[in-house]
Amino acid sequence: MITVAHAGFTLTRDYPVPIAELWAAFAVEERKRAWFGGGDEWTPGEWRFDFRVGGLDVDEARFHDGVLSRYEARYTDIVELTRIVTSYDMWIDGRHISTSVASFEFEDLGDQARLTHTEHGVHLDGLDDGASREHGSRLLLDALGRTLSS
Predict the structure, then answer these.
(1) Strand locations in the chain, DSSP E?
(2) pLDDT 10s digit of each residue in the chain, 150 long?
(3) Which of 25, 10, 49 is nearest to 149 (CA)?
(4) C-alpha to C-alpha distance for 115 and 118, rounded to whole angstroms
(5) Which member of 17, 103, 114, 130 lies 3.0 to 4.6 Å from 21 by CB, making a disulfide possible if both were Cys?
């Protein structure tokens, strides 16, 4: 089935850390790797991290049930401690399932920091949908929160 579905969402989270620490969770490779795409349900594969405008991030991993997931993101805008904008593609078992534009906005709240993640996706051929992507993004932000509090 050849289809295109469009979906968007916005998620906002407050984290009990200074804004510089939240920023570092995105901008420093070891810190991003600690929360992004990890977990016991995956066997890690290719990983690339190039945090700069025009840089490419790749996170490929295999679920233990055998499904191969691949994420490729290009940084299109970075303003330190303020925002990150990416465009990214997702594949499952070599099939292109979506292309998205995502922004991450950082706000200093004094003793904590706010992250607002907004995403607009094009989901292809019934292989992905906006609700699933939003759910996955919520899980990632939960993992980020656990990493920041440890």
Answers:
(1) 4-15, 42-48, 56-63, 68-79, 83-92, 95-108, 113-124
(2) 799 999 999 999 999 999 999 999 999 999 999 999 766 777 889 999 999 999 999 999 998 888 999 999 999 999 999 999 999 999 999 999 999 999 999 999 999 999 999 999 999 999 889 999 999 999 999 999 999 998
(3) 25
(4) 10
(5) 17
Residue at 3: amino acid letter:
T
Residue 32 CB coordination number (10 Å) = 21
Answer yes or no: pTM beyond 0.90.
yes
> Domain 4-148's class?
alpha beta
Q: Give 119's contacts (C-beta < 8 A, 6+ positions apart).
A: 8, 9, 10, 100, 101, 102, 103, 133, 134, 137
Any residues with CB less than 8 A from the CB of 54 and at least 6 apart, and which? Answer: 74, 75
Domain boundaries, the chain: 4-148
